[in-house]
User: What shape does this take?
Amino acid sequence: MNSRPHSLRPHSPRPLSRRSVLRGAAGALISLPFLEALTSRSLVAAEPAGGTRPIRLLWLHSESGIWMPQWKPTTTGTNFALTPTLEPLAPYRSEISVLSGLFHANAFKRNAQAGRHVQDGMCHLTATDLGGTPGVAVKNGISVDQLAAETIGEKTRVPVLNLSIDRNATMSFSAGGTPVPVDWDPREIFSRLFADNSPDAKKLAEARYLQQRSVLDDVMETTRDLSTKLGTTDRQKLDEYLSTVREVERRATVTRTWADRPAVSAPEGTKPPGPPPDKDRTAYVRLLMDLMVLALQTDQTRLATLRLGFMGCMYPDIGCPDSYHNYTHHDFKADKQAAMAKVDQHRIAHLAYFLGKLKAVKEGEHDLLHHCVIHYGTGMGADHETTDLANLVIGRGGGALKPGQHLDCKGKPLADLYVRMMATAGMPIKVFADSSGALSGL
Amino acid sequence: MATALRSLVRAVLPCLALLVSPRAAAADSAAFDHVVKPFLATHCTSCHGEKKQKGDLRLDTIASDFASPATAGHWMEVMERINSGDMPPKKEARPPAGDIAKVADWITGQLTEADRARQRNDHASVTYSRLTREEYRNSIRDLLGVTVDVFDPTGLPEDPAWHGFERIGSVLTLSPAHIEKYLTAADQALSEAIALDKQPELLREKFDAVGMRRVQHNLRDSLTAQGVLDQVRVDVVPNNTFIGHPGEGNDVHVKVSGEYRFRVKLSALRPEGGRAPRLLVYAASISRALYEGDVEAPIDQPTTIEFTAHLPVGRHQIRLINAVPGPRPEDRRSRPINGSPFFTLKRRLPWQMKLTDEVGKPMWPLMVADFWDLEGPVQTSWPPPAHQQLFTRGPDAAKDAPKDAAYARDIISRFAARAWRRPVDTNEIERLVRLAEKDQGLGNSFEASVKTALQAVLCSPRFLFLAEGSAGKARAQLDAWELASRLSYFLWSTLPDDQLTRLAASGQLVDQSVLRGEVRRMLSDGKAAAFAESFPRQWLRLRQVGMFAPDSKLYPDYDDHLQSSMIAESIGYFREVLTNNLSVREFLASDWTMLNERLATHYGISGVHGDAMRRVALKPDDHRGGLLTQGAILSMTSDGTRHRPVHRGVWVLEAIIGKPPPPPPANVPAIASDKKDQPKQGLRAKLEAHRADERCASCHAKIDPLGLAFDHYDAIGRWRTQEKVQEGSGDDPKIDASGELIDGRKFKDHAELKQLLVTDLPHFAAALTDHLATYALRRGMSFADRKDLHAVAAACAANGWRLGDLVEHLVLSDLFQRR
Assistant: This one.
């Protein structure tokens, strides 16, 4: 038997005695040295091989709706006034477009299995009708980040970086609609980005690759044998297994091609981050944002997603002790609506922090933000179901976009925006989910 | 007691007829024809019918086919709209609230049934269910004798849950991350179990007082010169968080993963009337508590705590923490930063005085540590036992018996048969032998190449999935191998042992008396602890305890130790009922519970000393007994700021009564917050206002009384007679926990409600059987399973509804032995 001390809370998301350890350690002592290392130096992105700067696509998700009256500007066009919720974005006003009236039709199709909240996260990047496959209660499609990764993912060491402060909340789904787990541990993310590239490590990696390859080949053959004996209805689980193994093998092959390329190391003075500051949500979100900036600036990836919150998120540090979800059930009470708007603004302040970091990284004549297209939004409205979703598009995509306006999209599918984003990054993808084409007017 | 049981038994048979839950009504198509259709015809079809189909919805022809997700979606829409009062529109006549409730109930029942029926997957000839990460860890442990740290941040992804259950086949999906982790986990486990090289050197690290404090200058030299180095000790006060520099702890560089033995030598002093110091040894690098426990040892008689922990390769920062919450005495003393930071017995410095009073008694829970050390990886033998079992020819056998393909075949097929839990297919073994040969061709040793093949065995779907059924055949009955696995993963969360395997091989296992003997043997085996812990954790949803952590300002008494003690009470309680084969009645009401000192203090029960959980007799004044008034249940159904009667009621409906209520519709106004200028209003009054709204009444009349009955317990489960209301004028309202069940029976508080539930013991036994079967069969129970479930529950009536009997009858049932 296992003689280790018996842990009574294997699932506890909070591994430490709340007051003892975290008070001293969490934000201040673990993440800050890392943050400081980034801010204290002038940052210059890696020089690209071809000369032109790559376009980066990012999706940030804020979860469970947004309180629209404090969010939506009253006038459209370039002269719109920033609303209270958007106020923290004032320094970057010329870089943002507020999009109103986008419709996310498939996220609003009633599904008996997934409720609104599950749909919020599951449909956000897939725009898929979860009940659209006959006989299957919940089946998702590929998410836009994964689709984009199929085209440009192999140009970078990490095809796409999926981050979340909730380790169980993904918005990314592979081609077969299976969930792609998120990265949430700052230490793992850092080591994924900056792997050891010494000759010894390479030799070891090659030996491991060959061994893994033959193990996977065997496993696939066994699975195929098992599978051919089965009828189509029986095969679902094995097919899922087979396609997953195939995907792992493909990834391993891609990783291998990276072994021979020059090593990329973190910018000088960057200290590897510590464990996630679970108790200090602001520090945690910003630490993940720092890692995103680091990944983009060193061109370790060109695609990333980040989930800023989750349904039960509480923000006692800004005077909102109840969960955000409870505020969304506001009962038309002004204090709850105010609390909702306060959390919205708090999250927008995180976004402003992120934009500041991107702007601080010089890229040629411009900065990193200039070469990004960032989508910020949520899959549901303020009251769990409205067709008018809160969306922001930020960055110029290298000059292809002209931000700085409030655009009424008049019920166009949200997927149109995703198609436009991919087009901006040079991807000739015309059809995605329920899109009717690339969104114009940006 | 005995008479009470007998009268209960007499009450059983009529009650079983009542067990027909909403699901039974749901299946009744008469309800569709006589209740639902007329309702739609009266209130809906003028806009959603033959002539008009507003919103593309037509209800006069809608089928009651809930297996189709699209149709089920329409029904859900209907339910939400009529429940929320959205439909029929305002200008139309309102349907009577009772009619709305009936239609909504029918839809809920159909949705639940369709969900569970889908999991039965009747049309598939083979069903696959992935091992959970707990089962994966245990299976590897039994195969190779090594630990995989599946719960570490770098371990396996968390298993998704369905109604609390984490082992439902159709819910457990796979992602590339799983495969990558399976590859690494198998490689790491095999590397620990198989000796490819000479025995790794032992790592020995020791941190004495100076080492723990990590003092910069040459203190060690000066203390040595003074001859007092061996008398220097380190004080660890609460909230001093750890020894060493902030954020770091003591560094240990582990080059070989394995079991490491730790020792901590310390004195630990409890202040008068206060709590004992609590030692927490924490590895920050892997976010894992390596050890946690209360310690007490006099200043002149230090104790040595020993434990082992599995450590992965890497640099680990190990911290010694005094994990008692409270004030931070460190702030109050003026210890010079670079001066002598040590606690010695002989030299008491002024700052040390602040830790003890004039007569030298501790003012805080105080630990005084001499050293901590570790050694490892610990090996019981070299090569490790698993290596010796696999490589039967031994290291020197090369001379007389060659390490050839036949030998590889022998090793691989023996291992695969155990790992795959059934006889192996020759083709698959040959492929693995070729894999080993190919690997050897790349220049690897015989052992290394066999290891590669074994890695493939552990990454095969045959290991990772529990498969039941024969391809292309409609076989209803489990074969002996499938039965052995189902039983083993049910009671042990791991693969079958040798005896179970032998009985499967001989086919004897399908013999009912043999099977009965096996259930009894397995329940009395230590491995049954897996069931005794995992089942109650999933059934009672203990994973949610602490998910919404109580606000530290409102509930300063709540700490991690209390939280883990609460969970330990509920799990220990289940184990106590199981191991003594007590009646399931004990879950509803009892005159005992499981406590340690921390929890007893919380409950206000005196006379319990020490950290270990033990059975404690209760008096009525203690206001405890049964599951429903346990801290874990009461606090998990609360949130950070207050108790939540509705959540408590929903929990009782799901876990105890087995009738999950429908999910709340969107846009339901939440409970109003307190107003400064009005008299203080308890939650009960607020909820009653809520229920005055007829849209809410139909569901909440069922839910709320079951939650309000526990209003005598606050958000962290403490007994009270008044509800603390944050804002408003006047006194806090007195608790009124009375209520009425949907059938009209009244109760005045939790104790009377418990007695009503005890009267309905057969209902509860049936609900529990449903939960047990869900756990054992890895799928939700559907209408079609109802008869079997009743038979299992009824079989236990004669002997007083004992839990062990319930498990036994379940295994012996046709339901358990069928696919």
Observations:
- The radius of gyration of chain A is 22 Å.
- Chain A has two domains: 27-192+266-424, 195-263.
